[in-house]
Fold this sequence. Notes:
single chain, 0% strand
Amino acid sequence: MIAAIVLLAFAExxxxxxxxxxxxxxxxxxxxxxxxxxxxxxxxxxxxxSLYLSIGKSLxxxxxxxxxxxxxxxxxxYALPRLFQLSGVIxxxxxxxxxxxxxxxxxxxxxTHALTVKTSESSQGGxxx
Length: 129
C-alpha cells in the first residue's frame, strides 16, 4: 500500500530518473500510476491463490496464481495494442490485474462461504453431544 502511494505521488520524479524527454515522462508516469493503483490488489490475489493451493484445491489455486501474468495478460498483450495502439500497451497490466481481482473475488466469496458453513456445522456438532 505504501509503495503504491509513493508511486502515485512521485511518478514523474521516479520516471525522470530514467530520462528527461517530456513526452516519455508523461507517458511513463501514466503507466506507472495505472500499475500502482491496482498493485494493491496483488496481495489479495496471492493470499487466496495460496489458500486454495494449501487446502489441496490445486486447479483453482493454479488458476489464481497464473491469472495475472498468463491467463489474462497474454491475450490482453495481443489484443489491446491492436485495438488501442500504445494506450493498449499501457492498459494491459492494469486490465489483467482488474480481471484477476474480479476472478479472485468470486473464489474468495466462495471459499469464505464454504469455511463459514463448515465452521458453523462444526460448532453445532460439538453442542449436540
